[in-house]
Amino acid sequence: MIKTIRIICAGIYSKRWLLTRRTVQLFILLAFLYQLPFIGNIATGNLSSSEWFDKIPLTDPFILLQSFLAGSSLAAPALIGALILAVFYAIFGGRIYCSWVCPINMLTDAAYWLRQRLNLKSNLSISKELRKAILFLALLLSFSAATLAWEIINPITLLQRELMWASMAGSMFLLALFFFDLLVSRRGWCGHLCPVGAFYGFLGHFGRLRVTVNRAESCAGSSCSACMKVCPEPHVLVPVVSLKGNTVVSGDCTRCGACLDKCSSGVLSMKIDLSHKHSFKNIPIVTKK
Fold it and tell me: Which domain of life is it from (predicted)?
């Protein structure tokens, strides 16, 4: 019995970051759908613009920027809500949104998990710069067409609409996205196409919450690279694994914690880094998974 409990606890601990992320993601998603006794609404609206506990406004800064470029008048609550989130992501790292908040992450992670189980090798090579180009195009279209261009096809918005109103168009788009990641391009959407990820990558480029190596000597000469095999953005770990730095500083890091779950030697941790030293640059690498 004790041995069984230990095995279960060890299994949970080995997935601690993943389980915590999924809990947070599901809470945020369900917060818009259900009420709590004696409290009422947890959140109203959606991830684009919401109010939590009937008091705290939160607005997606990317949506606000599109609204501004489209010529819309910006209400004070929207400005305050965008400022709250912009400051948070700028301090802790913008792409925390991608792995801890965005519900599409659960869909693409499921596609990647199934892809691994089926041992699918097909992988359309797409430049990561494309998501930046799509970001620029979305902002340009918002300005020229006076509309929230990206919101027309934003899968995050479509998923929330699907949960609330069962939109057939939304279902088809999300299904296409799932099969794109499963059959066409490994982590294609989040890693190469999504402009929301590109925006938050820029916003939180200098975020202070970072993956750090505690005992660099433990990685010296090691061919393990287990952390890179599970990382959705493996290039961010290259300087750490190659001992050219002890902290991940790339804006592409999503702070998902997959590397911490996978590292059996326990040399990695997530810490607030207040130093201003950037001792290495992003080094691209192609890894096989």
Answer: Bacteria
Region 54-73 average pLDDT: 95
CA 128 to chain centre: 15
Give the H or E element holding residue 13: helix 2-14
Assess whether 154 and 191 both reside in one domain: yes
Q: 149: Cβ–Cβ under 8 A, 6 or more apart, which residues? A: 66, 137, 138, 139, 141, 142
Paired tokens of 42: 């947890």
Predicted confidence band of residue 244 (pLDDT cuts 50, 70, 90): confident
Mark whether 39 and 171 lie in a shared domain: yes
Both tokens assigned to 21: 């992320």
Q: How many domains does the chain fold into?
A: 2
| Structural domain boundaries enclosing 230 | 209-272
CATH of the domain at 233: 3.30.70.20
Strands 43-45 and 209-213: unpaired
Q: What is the pLDDT of residue 72?
A: 92
Q: What is the DSSP string of 237-266?
A: GHHHHTTS-SB---TT-----HHHHH-TT-
- Closest to 253 (Cα-Cα) out of 176, 170, 197, 196: 197
Residue 27 has pLDDT above 90, yes or no: yes
Q: Side chain identity at 217, as an amino acid letter? A: E
